[in-house]
Amino acid sequence: MTTTDRAADAAGTGAAGADRLPPEFFTDPEPGGTHAANTRLRTSGCPVHAINYPPGGDAYVVADYATALEGFSDPRLSKQVENAPAWFRDLLEDSSPVLIRNMITADAPEHTRLRRLVSRAFVPRRMALLRPRIQEITDELIDALPESGEVDLMEFAFSLPMRVICEFLGVPIEDRPDLHAWGYWLSGAPFADEESNAELKRASDSIERYLVDLLDERRRTGLGEDLVSILLRAADEEDVFTNDELVSTLVLLIIAGHKTTANLIGNGMQALFAHPDQLELLRAKPELAESAVEEFLRFEPPVYRGTLRVATEDMELAGCPIPKEGFVHILMDSANRDPEAFEDPDRLDITRGPNRHLAFGQGAHFCVGAPLSRVEGQVAFPTLLRRLPGLTLAVPHDSLDWVFDNSTSRGLKKLPVRYDARLAAGEGDH
Ligand code: HEM
């Protein structure tokens, strides 16, 4: 049975079919918007609801903060593909084997082994050392903008993290368009239609070939201080990773390392445009960048729901029964607006503190790249506001188009902006 057949079957006669949320809850939210739909979920009795996603799967969304926290640390919710229903596992193994041999699809103790090396490379102290280079890259990208006029700020938003992650990994930046295209398909895996899954398989094979070649070349030409070299050295000397795991880990870092941070910049800027008082406050007080970035992550999280989680036994979450092999999607965009956890949650307040948002997840799988993307955000927002006076949205705010693809990220298709002048780097400093 294909996933499309399963979806039809589930929508028709499945036990929970009648009151399940449709798959479009994720991919084509109703006109009132995601946040209005989430509020309805949180206030309709039980914060856990059945959803037909992946189409044909037995699946649930978690909408409130307290249950989301519980879900992130419940050992009965597995991230291991082996615990998913056979049809889903086969679909992933057939379409994108390169995705499922890294930490994000593993439970302890495998998870601990696969994560340790990478997380050591991403500690905040090391990321702080990257700050001057991130500032330089940000300035170079702004130098390349026209002196005034209109641009699509999503191009900047995608270029910054892609250049940073390529440099950090030691991957040639010229290969960015290929990495970007493969990342698009891989971050949506698996799809409900065969055509998309065939495209996904092509992307999976291509990125695997690309990285195997890159690793071979790095071994031949000698290791440096980049992250690929650090991981290679550990894999070769300490026998910590198989080559397959190394390739899969690099795929994860490339995918997780750019679209997410691009959407932090895009989602954060659009939130500022919708709240001009907060924009002016950040322009006047760039020292607020740290708390502002946390507030953007809370208010419009770039990753709106958790990645694969599957119940390993029949269980309950917030009193709602979840059967063995049921999928559980934790909605961070809903938890982050839960009034039980945040005062006045629909208000953007760049001075908010404490701000215990769930945009990077929680527990063992807490985002490895959080320290890196935080630095990128803390550099990007104040630099854009300082160097582009008059920066403003060039279209009506309600005409902005959100991307609702198959992946767990949510961002804008385009962010057309205009500005009065482009100041030189260093000019306009406080
Ligand atoms: C604003 C930017 C980012 C956001 C919002 C974000 C969000 C997340 C979230 C929510 C998770 C946990 C998923 C779950 O438990 O279901 C996660 C995991 C992860 N992220 Fe990020 N991420 C960002 C940037 C990055 C960057 C820049 C990198 C690396 C270069 C990265 C690498 C990872 C990795 C490797 C994991 C898996 C951790 C594990 O399974 O132990 N992320 N991220």
UniProtKB/TrEMBL annotation:
It comes from the Bacteria. Belongs to the cytochrome P450 family. PANTHER family: CYTOCHROME P450 YJIB-RELATED, P450, PUTATIVE (EUROFUNG)-RELATED. InterPro entries: Cyt_P450, Cyt_P450_B, Cyt_P450_CS, Cyt_P450_sf. Keywords: Heme, Iron, Metal-binding, Monooxygenase, Oxidoreductase. It holds the Pfam family p450. GO terms for molecular function: heme binding; iron ion binding; monooxygenase activity; oxidoreductase activity, acting on paired donors, with incorporation or reduction of molecular oxygen. Residues 1-20 have a biased composition (Low complexity). It comes from Streptomyces nitrosporeus. PROSITE patterns: CYTOCHROME_P450 (PS00086). Residues 1-35 are annotated as: Disordered. This is Cytochrome P450.
